[in-house]
Amino acid sequence: MSDVRHGQVRVHGILSNSHKQAARVALSFAFPFYGHYLRQITIATGGFIFTGDITHRMLTATQYIAPLMGNFDPSYSKDSTVQYLDNGEVFVVQWERVRLPGKESAGAFTFQAALHKTGAITFSYRDIPLSLDVISSAEHPVKAGLSDAFMVTTPEGERQKIYEYHRVDVDTTKITSYSAVEFTALPTCLQHESCELCLSSDQTSGCSWCNVLQRCSDGMDRHRQEWLDYACSEEVYEWLQLWGFLSNTDVRTDSSTKSHVLANTGLIAGIAAALVLLLALILLALYINYHPTAASPLYLIQRRKNYWPSLKFQKPQPGYTEVEGDGHEKDCIVEAGPC
Question: What is the pLDDT of residues 297-306, one digit of tens each?
Answer without folding.
Answer: 333 333 333 3
